[in-house]
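Tip: read the tokens left to right.
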């Protein structure tokens, strides 16, 4: 088994072994990607966005991407938020996503793993283009 030790931001050890637990303190923030169809559901996506801005003013709303970008296979915008907001924002999205698909994942500094293994989907799961996140 491989064994490597690194530290989380506060300097405490985070031992990573095959099958070992990862310290959640590695999570810097969370991202929620709200997917929409520019021709059909952009209005609903705008309503969700406006409501998030009103209910969670601390969340940072990213740009509209009407074309696929990065690993995302369809139009979307990103919501970035601190870990402290997760207990309120995630259930809010569960109940108020207006039928849109949403990907929620942590930002641990490992984009590939965060999108592929640490992700939670609300609605249908979309096939991410993970090849754009692979290093090499």
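Filled-in amino acids:
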């Amino acid at each position: 088994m491989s064994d490597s030790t690194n530290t989380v931001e506060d300097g405490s050890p985070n031992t990573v072994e095959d099958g070992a637990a990862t310290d959640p303190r590695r999570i810097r923030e969370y991202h929620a990607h709200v997917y929409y169809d520019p021709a059909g559901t952009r209005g609903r996506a705008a309503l969700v966005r406006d409501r998030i801005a009103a209910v969670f003013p601390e969340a940072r709303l990213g740009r509209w991407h009407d074309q696929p970008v990065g690993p995302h296979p369809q139009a979307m915008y990103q919501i970035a938020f601190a870990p402290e907001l997760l207990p309120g924002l995630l259930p809010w999205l569960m109940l108020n996503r207006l039928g849109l698909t949403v990907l929620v994942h942590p930002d641990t500094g490992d984009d590939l793993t965060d999108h592929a293994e640490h992700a939670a989907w609300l609605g249908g799961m979309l096939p991410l283009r993970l090849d754009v996140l692979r290093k090499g």
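Confidence is low (pLDDT under 50) at residues 1-16. The chain is about 25% helix and 25% strand.
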